[in-house]
Design a protein that fits this description.
Layout: H1 2-5, H2 14-25, E1 32-36, H3 42-51, E2 54-59, H4 62-75, E3 81-85, E4 98-104, H5 113-123, E5 124-137, H6 145-151, H7 160-170, E6 172-179, H8 181-197, H9 199-206, H10 208-226, E7 230-239
Parallel strand pairs: 1-2, 1-4, 2-3, 4-5
Antiparallel strand pairs: 5-7, 6-7
Bound molecules: S-adenosylmethionine.
Length: 242
């Protein structure tokens, strides 16, 4: 995935999405950030290096956590970033520990959205902000909806209304919601071009069968984006009450 998305990233928006979220939330330098679904640490490293943030990442996959911690040491920023294995729905952190809770195209994989938003809320200081981008199901009634959930490994893909309701019910004031579906569709076209351009390298490292599976899945996802079945959005919300 890194070969087609970009170094440090397991999501197609990669560093461009990190930069957009920084702007959207107007991230202050030096903020304490919790990155939920931190993957290989691409956004955490960017926030630490460019914004002097102290970032705690959490990810379900121990392999990702170990690799992200290793890279933090190599980059010499182990004092600013740390990654822990754990589940977003039961965060191993104290209440009110972070200024910002961050999510970059990871929350689609977390089925219990209510627990996710509740845990994000608990972890934030009052007045702190939640900022995330995510893949969204735009047409749940479509015959292809189940296939989209399967291919994207997201059994409970969110939608705008569900996220807005959950955040409001939890004690967030939603400041911004941006529909980024068109950007995602364009980004996915570029992902497919990069995938085709790197075919020889991917085949050499992983074999033709893996390449074909990845290509087929990525083509399906692009079609889902361009047909309007799948979309994406970015959200900013402030914790206004306990
Ligand atoms: C598509 S990747 C995105 C990673 C990273 N945010 C990025 O932009 O590169 C999704 C990540 O979410 C993690 N994840 C999935 N379910 C999770 C859960 N319940 N709790 C914590 N992390 C989870 C996965 O292990 C994976 O690393």
């Amino acid at each position: 995935m890194e070969m087609i998305y970009g170094d440090g990233f397991l999501s197609p928006g990669a560093v461009g999405t990190t930069q957009s979220l920084i702007e959207l939330v107007q991230l202050p330098d030096g903020a304490t950030v919790l990155d939920i679904g931190s993957g290989l640490g691409g956004s955490a490293f960017y926030l630490a290096e460019r914004k002097a943030c102290v970032v705690q990442g959490i990810d379900l996959m121990e392999m990702n956590v170990a690799e992200a911690n290793r890279r933090a040491q190599v980059l010499g920023i182990g004092d600013l970033v740390a990654f822990t294995a754990g589940n977003a729905t039961a965060l191993p952190f104290d209440d009110e520990q972070f200024d910002i809770v961050w999510g970059q195209d990871a929350w689609c994989h977390i089925d219990d959205k209510k627990a996710l938003i509740s845990e994000a809320h608990r972890s934030l200081v009052t007045g702190g902000s939640l900022v995330f981008s995510d893949w969204l199901l735009k047409d749940a009634g479509s015959d292809l909806a189940e296939e989209v959930r399967k291919v994207t490994a997201s059994a409970n893909l969110g939608d705008v209304a569900t996220y807005l309701e959950l955040m409001a019910a939890q004690g967030f004031e939603v400041a911004t919601h941006v529909d980024t579906s068109a950007e995602f569709a364009e980004g996915y076209r570029q992902v497919l071009s990069r995938l085709r351009a790197t075919e020889a390298q991917v085949v050499e490292r992983f074999g033709q069968k893996i390449f074909d599976i990845v290509l087929e899945k990525q083509q399906f996802v692009l079609e889902a984006f361009t047909s309007g079945l799948l979309g994406a959005g970015s959200f900013v919300a402030r914790k206004v009450r306990l």
